Amino acid sequence: MAEQADVIVIGMGPGGExxxxxxxxxxxxxxxxxxxxVGGECPYYGCIPSKMMIRAAxxxxxxxxVPELAGTSQAVxxxxxxxxxxxxxxxxxxxxxxxxxxFEKAGGRFVRGTARxxxxxxxxxxxxxxxxxxxxxxxxGTDPAVPPIPGLxxxxxxxxxxxxxxxxxxxxxxxLGGGPIGLELAQAFARFGTRIxxxxxxxTLLPLEEPEASRLVEDVLPAEGIGxxxxxxxxxIEHDGTAFTVRAGGRTYTAERLLVATGRRVDFDAxxxxxxxxxxxxxxxxTDEHLRIxxxxxxxxxxxxxxxxxxxxxYQAGIAASHILGEETAGAEYHxxxxxxxxxxxxxxxxxxxxxxxEKDLEVATATAQIPSSARGWIHKAGxxxxxxxxxxxxxxxxxxxxxxxxxxxxxxxxxxxxVHERTPIRRLREMIYAYxxxxxxxxxxxxxxx
Length: 451
Ligand SMILES: Cc1cc2nc3c(=O)[nH]c(=O)nc-3n(C[C@H](O)[C@H](O)[C@H](O)COP(=O)(O)OP(=O)(O)OC[C@H]3O[C@@H](n4cnc5c(N)ncnc54)[C@H](O)[C@@H]3O)c2cc1C
Ligand SMILES: NC(=O)c1ccc[n+]([C@@H]2O[C@H](COP(=O)([O-])OP(=O)(O)OC[C@H]3O[C@@H](n4cnc5c(N)ncnc54)[C@H](O)[C@@H]3O)[C@@H](O)[C@H]2O)c1
Hints:
By secondary structure, the protein is of the alpha/beta class. The chain has 14 helices and 22 strands. It folds into three domains: about 5-40 and about 95-140 and about 265-325, FAD/NAD(P)-binding domain, CATH 3.50.50; about 160-265, 3-Layer(bba) Sandwich (FAD/NAD(P)-binding domain), CATH 3.50.50; about 340-450, 2-Layer Sandwich (Enolase-like, domain 1).
């Protein structure tokens, strides 16, 4: 006999955990199923511990900027401090007891196991059956994608899951992939003294972002001693028991450690999505504005393909939970999804890039302003690289996208996110007052350069 519940939540990433708790608190009977750790990738292997490493590494970089600005300094890196912080404060040593108890206190029933959807209302967890009267909510996230490079399988390579648990900064590290994971961690470890080589298959770093942002990180990272090799696809990999050797583009790279950060994968087959008519070969599941795949089955988070970010997962969780509860709720909108890569300078962006806007046949106008030439950037001096790029739909007189890269690029992005989200007329953005001398005054400068 299948165990009955109002709602079954499969996968408790950030959004699944939030939605499950809210639904349980509202009085619904909720079964939450998680095969690993409640909270998902973000707190245990992703955002939070990686940002703790970055915070620690950035403090070293700031200390090294003292001679240019304020005298002398000596920073002696010790990775043990942040490794311990990740254990004590971020991951509880990869133990989710507190999160499970929080869910149970909210009234939920927690089941540890691997769930498979068997029909529009039914779920099987390692042989135990469950039936949902109201909804099934999927929040199963992604796993690291490991390319089939000859020699790689079977070696002790790292993905984001192992690198986050490192107790020491290795002497040397090869990073496969110049996306957000690869670059954030490459810079963080470099600042702790690790010799880094980044191998990116495409011709630019951060290939999904504006070329100006890519060029910025391609300038900044080598200046810190990081080896950047774009257009470089690994052809073979060996591990001799102590070191990795990667062959690519006629060259050989050797390092103590190898980090594979080449994107993410999903296994919709294993999740049983064929049983509700989903094409299991697709990279994401199609959902309507209230996150339904079909009536009664919802999906949120990375698997929906609207940006693999915690804030998207949480945003969708709110909408899906409200809809399941029968509350009046606005549908999801994705025209102003913000994203920040936490390199130093941070690379923030929202909405469309120039290329995406042109592909949509918009009447595109763009403008850029350089942070070092703004008053605040000039004052800031050491570590002041950055830019604002605006992408406007000239016909409608609004911004449809923007990039904010700089020392606080992710924070400056907030005003641009609001402008794109609200479709604020450019005329009104030009009429407002920008505090002097802030980094965000560069937005005013860029607005003045739009035709
Ligand atoms: C190194 C790194 C850094 C990142 N930094 C940031 C950042 O700074 N900002 C940001 O917004 N995002 C960041 N992300 C992305 C972020 O972690 C994810 O977008 C976020 O976790 C949301 O994912 P999700 O909600 O889809 O689920 P996930 O967090 O992926 O969780 C899904 C859960 O489902 C479980 N599960 C899967 N299948 C089953 C099954 N069949 N049965 C039971 N349970 C199952 C998994 O065990 C997992 O716990 C980062 C990611 C990485 C890897
Ligand atoms: N700050 C943040 O918000 C943050 C940080 C980290 C990750 N994330 C999320 O996690 C997702 C995954 O991050 P990611 O960096 O792994 O993925 P990604 O897909 O963004 O980047 C992977 C990179 O690896 C390259 N690549 C693929 N195969 C390769 C190969 N064989 N050799 C060399 N390079 C190869 C790709 O061209 C790409 O540039 C991101 O899309 C992002 O949404 C977010």
